[in-house]
From TrEMBL:
Native species: Sphingorhabdus lacus
Pfam hit, one: TPM_phosphatase
Transmembrane segments: 48-69, 89-108
Protein name in UniProt: TPM domain-containing protein
Keyword Transmembrane helix: yes
């Protein structure tokens, strides 16, 4: 799910989400874990990819317009044109490619630009992978009934994910979490990420209460607090 205008979580947001989790779990044996992070991946490989593309384009440009670039070299060296050997030409090409590569890589050290040049599909996949990784470490199989579910929000990628444990996944398809995701998106777009997560938790609680109502013995097995990484 795409999100926009995301703000940092405040202490009030932490309290709001924690209280929402506790309230939702009063009516269900399900356990809700909430995690918010600034960034799920640094996308260093994307910077390397675009640097390589820039270097290749420099090579292609010389192949298409050799006279133009040799003229530039002559002007830099004082206008003394001469016939370059194949070795000299290849050396100049490799130097130009190296400069293009390094320059592009340095520019793309700026994260906002790197993120802007990362395809949405890649960001979706990596946020999902990070959510699943965190779920496996802190939520999966951590409850007696395998009824844990993770709500994960990644700020800079503008993405959110819900990952459910085995027993929940059997009964609740990803589409059923639609109301929770819509609630989160609407409030985050309005610059209210804490309220968005709290409302998403409330909607998740409704779904969980329907399929996994509160039992007689149901200890609080996972933390209610909002975890900020």
């Amino acid at each position: 799910m795409a999100l926009h205008k995301i703000n940092r979580m405040t202490q009030a947001d932490h309290m709001r989400v924690t209280e929402a989790v506790a309230a939702a779990e009063l009516h269900t044996s399900g356990e809700i874990v909430t995690i918010v992070t600034d960034l799920s991946d640094h996308y260093e490989d994307i910077g390397l990819f675009w640097a390589s593309v820039a270097a290749f384009l420099a090579f292609a440009a010389y192949g298409l317009f050799p006279d133009f670039y040799l003229g530039l070299v002559d002007s830099v060296t004082g206008g003394w044109a001469h016939d370059y050997s194949a070795g000299e030409i290849m050396a100049m090409i490799f130097v130009a490619m190296a400069l293009k590569w390094v320059g592009t890589w340095l520019i793309l050290k700026w994260l906002p630009l790197r993120l802007a040049l990362t395809p949405k599909a890649i960001k979706m996949a990596r946020v999902r992978a990070r959510a699943i990784s965190l779920f496996k470490v802190g939520t999966e199989a951590k409850t007696v009934g395998r009824t844990g579910v993770l709500l994960y929000l990644s700020m800079k990628e503008h993405r959110a994910e819900i990952v459910a444990d085995e027993e929940i996944a059997k009964l609740v398809t990803p589409e059923i979490w639609g109301d929770a995701m819509v609630a989160l998106i609407e409030r985050v777009k309005a610059g209210q990420p804490g309220e968005g997560m709290a409302e998403a938790v409330r909607q998740m609680g409704i779904v969980l209460a329907e399929h996994f109502p509160k039992g007689h013995e149901n200890p609080n097995e996972l933390p209610d607090r909002l975890i900020e990484l």
